[in-house]
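Per reviewer request, we include the raw input and output of the structure prediction for the construct analysed in the revised manuscript.
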Amino acid sequence: MRALAQIGHNTREAVENRSFAIDTTFVLFFLAIEFAQSESLWALDTMMVGITLLMVMALPYFINSEEEKPAFKDWFIGRVFITAFALVLGLMFRQALGNVLPETLRFLPMTLLILTAMISCYVQFYGFLRFRLAK
């Protein structure tokens, strides 16, 4: 029984430690959709979103974690595929606005981006500030 409790405890810790990649992946996804939906590629706000997109693609790898991280190359290739998929969805979403979808849904990706960014910040700050027992 005690071994079973230990396995459950280890599984819970592994899930908590993987949050550095999961919550930032959702932020990356919605940010890429918002970037693809932009009107002009050379506008200042679009360039700022593009720079932010590149940072959100790479920097979450360097967040402190207690578990062993995968190789950066493999991890980053996965993030590139997620970004490419979200860019395609963003372009499709922009084409569908006004034709298939009502124009009022234009702000849905930004709303979901803000919501996921707030949740991600909460999860990251909780991970930084929670009490850990001394070893």
